[in-house]
Design a protein that fits this description.
- This protein is of the alpha/beta class.
- It has a domain of 101 residues: FAD/NAD(P)-binding domain.
- The chain is 34% helix and 19% strand.
- The strands form three sheets. The protein has a three-stranded parallel sheet. A two-stranded antiparallel sheet has the order 1-7.
- β2, α1 and β3 form a beta-alpha-beta unit.
Length: 160
């Protein structure tokens, strides 16, 4: 027989967004669980594209996560664009009013977030494809209707 676990927030997916939300909730003392269908090694090695722009980097800075997430990451200074074989350099901070981006590849970001959460005894569940969160309780789709924004205070789901 499956027992139910009660939590305030159920996060589906251990990508950069889900893990960032988990880290912010963890710092705020809100109970949550992260459910990821794939294995931890798959999630950590999955190829991703992109780096953090200024505003995304500020999320970690303002949350006090600068060192564990952004530590050692260089900031951008010049962006090289090649056109017809000629390199052109743009000074991004100058063009963006002094704001810069962090050069943290998303794959590294995800690894650092997982390490931060797991070291902090967070409830991150990999290979959770067999679990079911009753999302029908959280939101219902009706024909010709937008997704209802009625969420219960607590969401229960079976343990794995």
């Amino acid at each position: 027989m499956t027992s139910a676990v009660e939590t305030t927030v159920a996060i589906v997916g251990a990508g950069a967004s889900g893990l960032t939300l988990a880290a912010l909730l963890h710092r705020a003392g809100v109970d949550y669980v992260v459910l990821e269908a794939r294995s931890r090694s798959y999630v950590e090695e999955r190829q991703r594209a992109g780096v953090l722009d200024h505003y995304a980097g500020q999320v970690y800075v303002k949350a006090g996560l600068t060192e564990p997430i952004l530590g050692g990451a260089p900031t951008d200074s010049l962006l090289e664009i090649r056109y017809d074989g000629v390199a052109r350099f743009l000074n991004i901070p100058e063009l963006a009013g002094g704001r810069h981006s962090y050069v943290v590849p998303q794959q590294l970001l995800v690894r650092r977030l997982i390490a931060l959460l797991v070291d902090g005894a967070a409830d991150v569940r990999f290979e959770a494809a067999g679990s079911r969160c009753p999302l029908s309780l959280c939101a219902q789709r009706r024909p010709h209707d937008r997704l209802r924004q009625h969420f219960p205070r607590k969401c229960c789901f079976p343990t794995i």
